[in-house]
Design brief:
The chain is of the alpha+beta class and 145 residues long. It contains three helices and four strands.
Length: 145
């Protein structure tokens, strides 16, 4: 019984976690695609660049860019974009795409001009999918011996 619980804890639970992460990344990519293709566009300006230090000694941390824009309905929206080119500075202007129903959560500078916001979750999804495939193969080989 303890061996079965150990196998479940070491193999099945991480598989469920990776599958959940992959579902989140794919959902994010699909939402970005929908917004870029069918959403509205506006000009956004980078109003702040925030560096967040890492707790690790070998990492520099993360850089977040805060953009602001005005929707077609006149609403001012401020949102954070985490996957913009590192050289982007305060005052940088970009076309932002958004869903008018929820501009705060759907806004992205992803588009034909800037693919970084698509590449980051896309590459992460590929890596997670590869790790998930290996873990599933191990799960199947161990559980069905």
């Amino acid at each position: 019984m303890t061996e079965t619980l150990t196998i479940v804890a070491l193999l099945v639970l991480p598989t469920i976690g990776l599958a959940s992460l992959l579902a989140y990344l794919v959902r994010r990519l699909l939402r970005m695609r929908r917004v870029v293709v069918h959403g509205k566009a506006a000009v956004a300006e980078c109003i702040e660049v925030r560096d967040i230090a890492s707790n690790s000694t070998d990492m520099d941390g993360s850089r977040y860019h805060i953009f602001a824009f005005v929707t077609g309905e006149g609403q001012r929206v401020t949102y954070t974009e985490d996957a913009v080119a590192p050289y982007t500075q305060v005052g940088y202007r970009a076309t932002v795409h958004y869903d008018p129903a929820d501009p705060q959560r759907t806004a992205t500078v992803a588009g034909r001009d800037d693919l970084a916001p698509v590449l980051v979750p896309g590459c992460a999804a590929l890596g997670v999918a590869a790790a998930l495939a290996v873990l599933l193969w191990i799960d199947v080989s161990v559980l069905f011996q």
